[in-house]
Amino acid sequence: MCACALYDPPTSPGPRGSPRLRPRGFVISYRSASAQRARQSVRIWHALGMAKPTEVRMRRKMIHPIFHLQSEREDDEQLTKGMINVVRKTGQLNLSGRALATVPKGVFSMYDIGKDAVANFDMSKDTEENWWSFKPLTYLDCSSNVLTDIPTDIKLFEDLTVLNLQDNNLSTLPESIGALKKLTKMNLSRNKIASLPREFYSLGELQHLNIAHNCLEKLGDEFVDMVMLQTLDLSNNLLTSLPTGIGYLVRVTEFNVSHNQLTELPLDISCMRAMTKLDVTHNNLKSLPNMSDMRKLHVIHAQHNDIEDLPMFEGCDALQELHFGNNFIKAVTEEFCENLPLLKILDLRDNKIEELPDKIAMLQHLIRLDLTNNELTALPNSLGLLSHLQNLQIEGNKFRHIRQDLLKAGTCRLLKHLRDKMDADESIRLSPSQTHTSLSPEPRIFPDKYMMRNSRAVNLAMKEISFVPDEVFKDALSADVHIVDISKNKLLEVPSGLQIVAENVSELNLNTNKLKTLPSFIADFTRLQYLDVGRNQLSDLPDLKGLPNMRELILSFNAFTSVPECVYSLEKLEILLISDNQVRKIDVDGLKRLQRLATLDFTNNSIDHVPFELGLLKQIRCVELKGNSFRQPRYAILEQGTDSVMAYLRDRIPQ
Question: What is the mean pLDDT of residues 70-96?
Fold first, then answer.
């Protein structure tokens, strides 16, 4: 029963500080009832052998690992009976952030069965405590504690696949760590580990390894036997060299060895052909080895080294970001510009560069170029041909022929100045007798041979044109053009003159026009690797079987109701973007034929069902399905990324 009390409550200040009087009268008090419920909940928690949550929180606040190192008894108390029951059901144990100085002893006896339970077990009874239904420990998280060592009994957990020991005080690992043969993911970052036991290198199934922020000075030669590694983080250590034979780690896609003391990289690093991201910042490197075989490399971070020459990167066609700031680079060569057709970001700040070549214009996809704090005195006019360049940083140089107001006017204004200057110089070069009457030549719409020869591209983006004369493509053929960009115009049909350069073009951009069909001669572009026809009015494609080298196809923002059948014949296709259309069905059988497909974008279509078999396409590393009408997978699953989506689909395939 609730107790009733007659009392005169004290005055309390009003909203502006003035006293506020409460009327005298009967007030119902729930104190006795709430106290009774509190006492009852405490009894329930203690009956389960678990501490009251508020008590646990208070105890964690009181115990700080810096000022108070927990005793073994206090560590053991962190593992409650309730947690053990959860481990037995799920196979996962989380001891992160509990100020543990030692691993609780109960961790290694969680699966022990008492003698009475063994003697009196009854198979006919189905209870939650049936020991034969326990799940083995597969996930163990002991991160963010103050552990100084790991007990040798860790070998008992042979089914462990994930082990997180991040942010502790470990200086060594036990030899018994080698018994965890099923480990696929291990995090040892932010410890004091100076060396790894030989048994560690026998973890043959390890795929993700993080040993960043430790004291490693050397890796054993056996390290190269861990051939299943996919991501490897060795940053912030004391390494002076990498083991010979590291090229055997052919599955590594992300390799971080930044903030070490490396003076060179092994030559066989080029054998790591699956690598997409390499980070070697803050070392003592004077050069990088030949990387011509690393054709999947997307990003290189090499800032803060002693590099004097830029590598050629011949064959690294997929490179999109190069960061070489804070080095001693003196020149950007023409060969460097010719080998990077997809480069978007080039960071060369804080170097010794004195001049840029005219062929810098061949980097047609460049979005950001940072030349801050170099020794440039001029910029090539051909830089104005980079139509996609949005951010040009050139502060800290000693320009002689560019006005200060132009340098401060921003990227667009500066590029326009360079383009106008190129047009003026070209007019003077072609008509020297008329220079006195041609002080202000009209802006040129179509590029001439000189422009195309320097950039190896026909750049007609954002010209508001509805046709292109054949003479432009004839000049392009003689200039050996490889890139044609006619995006963001008013084309109603593809210029017929394109056939003239069909055998040379590797990139064709027709994005943002008014095209309703593509001509059949598109199939004659046998060297075409990149085709962008997004933001048009297309509903079908011609037969594309004659494009054996196609790697990236963009069909977004059109009127497709399905993926055209001819797309499934592009055996080398790696990226397919068909978002914002009216696609209703995902053809898994067709996608199976695209063995190299890595990125698939079906965002904002009319798909009402996602076939579970899509999860079996292991070559796909990025799939986007948001903005469709299907109910499964749920949005929460889509938010977790491609791995979660593919795992969800695989788990629902009927056995």
Answer: 90
Q: What is the rounded CA–CA span in Å between residue 433 and residue 366?
A: 37
SS3 163: strand
Q: Where are the beta strands (DSSP E) in 190-298?
A: 208-210, 231-233, 254-256, 277-279
Assigned CATH for 73-106+133-190: 3.80.10.10
Are 472 and 452 spatial neighbours (Cβ–Cβ below 8 Å)? no
Residues with Cβ within 8 Å of 433's Cβ and at least 6 positions away in sequence, in order, are: none
Task: For residue 410, count other CB atoms closer than 10 A to its CB.
Answer: 11
All CATH 3.80.10.10 domain ranges in the chain, comma separated: 73-106+133-190, 216-307, 321-432, 449-651
State residue 119 phi and psi, 5-degree precision. -75, -30
Q: By the 8 A CB rule, do 622 and 598 touch? A: yes
- Of 52-66, 456-470, 600-614, which range is least confident? 52-66
**Higher confidence at residue 20 or residue 446?**
446
Taking the C-alpha atoms of residue 203 and residue 222, their distance in angstroms, rounded to an integer, is: 11
Return the half-sphere exposure (C-beta side, CA atoms, 13 A cut-off) of residue 352: 9
Kindly report the pTM of this predicted structure.
0.66
- CATH architecture group of domain 216-307: Alpha-Beta Horseshoe (3.80)
The per-residue pLDDT for range 463-510, each reduced to its tens digit, is 889 889 999 999 889 888 888 989 989 999 999 999 999 999 988 999
- Please give the CATH number for the structural domain made up of 321-432: 3.80.10.10
DSSP letters, 548-597, are TT--EEE--SS--SS--GGGGG-TT--EEE--SS------HHHHHT-TT-
Cβ atoms 261, 238 nearer than 8 A: yes
284, 293, 285: which is closest to 312 by C-alpha?
293
The two structure tokens encoding residue 182: 């099923």
Residue 345: burial class (beta carbons within 10 Å; 0-12, 13-18, 19+)? middle
Task: Classify domain 449-651 by CATH number.
Answer: 3.80.10.10
For 547, residues 6+ apart whose C-beta sits below 8 A from its C-beta are 522, 523, 525, 526, 528, 531, 570
385, 419 in Cβ contact below 8 A?
Answer: yes
Mean pLDDT along residues 234-252:
93
| The pair of three-digit structure tokens given for residue 435, joined into one six-digit string | 């220079």
